[in-house]
Amino acid sequence: MSNIILIQHCQSEHHINNMSGGWTDTPLTELGRKQAEIIGEKLINYVGYNDYVLYSSDLLRASQTAEIIGTKLSLKVIQDKGLREINTGVAAGKTKEWARANRQPQARSGFDLDYQEFQNGESWREFYNRVCDCMDRIYELEKNKNLLIVTHGGTLSNILAWWMKFELHMIGNAYFSSSPGGISVLSQNSIQQNIVNKFNDTSYFD
């Protein structure tokens, strides 16, 4: 039975400079780098006694978080595009105002699995399937190893839904909202039930 530690990337430039998220590729702020240092220190005792493999989204804000943590833990970072945030298509690199003004019209109100918010972007169905395929692949490749995964808020929510074995239609009914630097811990018990031991822990920043 393996454990999975999920970390949402730390504070990024897009959090403070009015840029949109998604595939907008912004680096960590100075505070974000300090947050990653704190997380690395926090995990030394926990991860140090176990065999962990460190994966990260290849977008800067996640990969930089992972590199700082990996240095603390003496772990090499494996980057995987499947762990990226939702693809925002033409909105990547644009401001939040531009994104709000240029969203594609939605056919109906409420959550729509097949709504593509931006041209050349992903729908929620495509996003969820991409993340699930990525996690299935990583989980099979690293069988029986513990995983440390640095990713993004939307991706992290999908990973939790994948872990809890949500059917595709169920992601319209629930969203796991995490914070920059938040740590979540997943495990299995002796009868193979999937457990969320901890979600979005940021207490170590206090």
UniProtKB/TrEMBL annotation:
- List, from the UniProt record, the residues annotated as the active site of this protein: H9 (tele-phosphohistidine intermediate), E85 (proton donor/acceptor)
Q: Which GO terms describe its cellular component?
A: cytoplasm
Looking up SMART domains in the UniProt record yields: PGAM
GO molecular function, a single term: phosphatase activity
Q: Where does substrate bind?
A: R61, K96
Gene3D superfamilies in the record: Phosphoglycerate mutase-like
Tree of life domain: Bacteria
Protein name as it appears in the record: Histidine phosphatase family protein
